[in-house]
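Risk mitigation, structural track. In case the binding assays with zinc ion fail to produce interpretable data, a predicted complex structure has been prepared as a fallback.
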Amino acid sequence: MKPLERLLLENKAWAQEKAAHDPEFFDKLRQPRNPDCFWIGCSDSRIHADQVTQTEPGEIFVHRNIANQVATMDMNFLAALEYAVDFLEVKHIIVCGHYGCGSIKAAMGKARPDQLFINKWLKYIKDIYRLHRENIDAESSDEARHNKLVELNIIEQVHNLAQTSVIQRAWRAGSRPDLRGWVYGLHDGIIKEIASLKAGSPLDPIYEQDLEFSTVKKQL
Ligand SMILES: [Zn+2]
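Fallback model:
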């Protein structure tokens, strides 16, 4: 059987199984849901937010990209973030990376000339490696060095998230969302928390908005 035919066949089997187990499953799914969590994960095919957390459809709003980046030039990401924060009013945002991430390994080596867009995307990861090079290279094995950069990338993305205007606006308006950095172990399936920023956490002043300036501008 061709791979795509198998997917469609498995889809029918899944739909029948769900309906058999809970006849109201699809009726409930049609109702609007307000997920509490926004998950920013890696596109890696081995990690699915709902599978590894045993959550049901409707519980987690998801954005995935290569190496779970908070890319503030990416309209797709920014639109998803704005929707999650301003419309779904999520209470938590999770940046979840994973040990053994192939993109992180790729970013630690030379760029391949035939991967024009991948190279551009991985550039931000290379920057994190460069900034923490001494710390990362002090690890005793290639695997440990990769995993160190996996963790530092997650921590960096949590801070990037805090610096976005969407999060800063939400934090000024109320007490959500909290930001979390999680790392998933492909070897054991376990998620560990390695970073967290409560709503309203102070930023380095260089990332803060000069509200006084914006008030003055409005008056002009
Ligand atoms: Zn990955």
